[in-house]
Amino acid sequence: MKIRILGCGTSTGVPRLGTGWGACDPEEPRNRRLRSSILLESGGETLLVDCGPDLREQLLTAGVESIDRVLVTHDHADHCHGIDDLRPIAQAKGGPVPLLARADVLDRLEQRFRYIFIDTRFYRPVMQATPIQGDLSVGEAILRFVDQPHGGITSLGMRADEGGYSAGYAIDFHEMTDEMFGMYRGLDLWICDCLRRAPHPTHAHLDAVIGWAKDLGVGQLLLTHLDNSMDYKTLSAELPDWAAPAYDGQEVVLA
């Protein structure tokens, strides 16, 4: 099972329009962050998690030409507004790419991007809406899901298990529920939302994430969805040896 960090930035990315690099050193390449997304590969299958507005650049950089399925954690713009960039993926595939999400998220995506899901006179459907209800297999990995509080909505967190190894992806949430704790307990790798140091009403912050990771007993923690206050080297120096900021293009193999 391999996970690639396609992007680890917040909704505005780093540098940010208007305020630029903030506290981040522009000479450190790991501070340049596209919108948050990952690619999970297992057993010859590829799952894209979220398709934000940087998707084309992310997939070209990663050398990705084919995707088997796409999962959308929630329908905020930074997690789904690159959906049109999946058109050439579907054309190369010769048919629509399954798009997985909770049913209510799919309903809103089908309203917002109706042309992506329908057969028109000129274009075939790009995506096939597929509600997530239970567990999911991707190659040899088994994925389980949990709904996470994200302000007034929920986002979808996931855990992937394969061959005795486990990884979790917890993006866009602000508090830990009992269901989430049970899902993420004992992970080998936890990729977790960590917007900034100060508390935020819809995102996790540094002290909370470190505390949760200790309580969960995770083996390795990678911080993602980072804003321009989170300089890579400064943050790395503050963290315990089992934790680190994620960076765009990072790959982790669990085997």
TrEMBL record:
<dbReference type="Pfam" id="PF12706">
    <property type="entry name" value="Lactamase_B_2"/>
</dbReference>
<dbReference type="InterPro" id="IPR036866">
    <property type="entry name" value="RibonucZ/Hydroxyglut_hydro"/>
</dbReference>
<dbReference type="InterPro" id="IPR001279">
    <property type="entry name" value="Metallo-B-lactamas"/>
</dbReference>
<feature type="domain" description="Metallo-beta-lactamase">
    <location>
        <begin position="47"/>
        <end position="225"/>
    </location>
</feature>
<protein>
    <submittedName>
        <fullName>MBL fold metallo-hydrolase</fullName>
    </submittedName>
</protein>
